[in-house]
Specification:
This protein has nine helices and no strands. The longest helix is centred in the N-terminal third of the chain and has 37 residues.
């Protein structure tokens, strides 16, 4: 049985021959020859969210490893393991909005394509997917706040000098700003689609730029969170 992903890939392979003559602006109209280009957006968006999720998980795992290393000479194994397992589980609330957006993005592309076929306007094809990106910053920041609360036992165990909980929690605002800025840049690129000569390439480039910005930004922010935890752990007295 053919799966939806297979059909999208088949459409994507056909798109090159259906986008019209090279060098001519694609314009702001939408018809059945354009819907195949938005199969590319669905496929590229799915890949981008997968890779952003991998960046988040990888950066979080670095934090777990480094925290365990800092706690090793300071806590008994049972206590150390309990705290690092708590940190591992705390990823879920931050990760969930990205997982939800990954699924919602593909649905939004389908919704937008159907709306554009009815209206004949190119902008209607990408408007629903933009809303997914625009809402992601707030939801991810809310997830970070939940992650911060979940590792309450860590805050209780680590020295309070410099208020590590507040410093860690404040990183949620940076995540929100990162994702909001990436969404705004994606919107600006989409607004320029009518002036582009290659709809497929423009869509690929826009989605790749969103991924690159978000992926690097998330890795940096999560690493800053790791630093807050490790620096606080290093203030604990060493085992005698």
């Amino acid at each position: 049985m053919s799966m939806p992903g297979d059909r999208l890939r088949q459409l994507a392979r056909k798109v090159r021959g259906r986008l019209g003559p090279g060098g001519r602006p694609v314009g702001d109209a939408f018809d059945s020859h354009r819907d195949v280009a938005f199969a590319v957006l669905a496929e590229e968006g799915d890949s981008a969210f997968q890779r952003v999720g991998a960046s988040l998980v990888g950066a979080w795992e670095v934090g777990i490893t480094d925290l365990a290393r800092a706690l090793e000479p300071r806590l008994q194994n049972a206590a150390k393991n309990k705290l690092t397992e708590r940190l591992s589980d705390a990823l879920v609330p931050t990760q969930q909005p990205l997982n939800d957006a990954k699924h919602a993005f593909g649905q939004a592309v389908t919704e937008g394509t159907q709306a554009a076929l009815r209206s004949g306007r190119l902008a209607d094809a990408w408007a629903p997917s933009l809303r997914i990106l625009q809402g992601l910053g707030r939801k991810t920041a809310e997830g970070w706040a939940k992650s911060t609360d979940y590792i309450g036992p860590l805050w209780e165990a680590l020295p309070g000098e410099g208020d590590p909980r507040q410093r860690f929690g404040a990183l949620g605002a940076r995540l929100e700003g990162l994702l909001d800025e990436a969404a705004a840049e994606w919107q600006r690129t989409m607004n320029e689609l009518p002036q582009q000569a290659d709809l497929q390439r423009a869509i690929r480039d826009a989605t790749e730029a969103w991924y690159a910005k978000v992926s690097v930004g998330i890795e940096m922010i999560v690493y800053d969170g790791r630093t807050v935890l490790v620096q606080a752990a290093e203030k604990l007295p060493r085992k005698s």
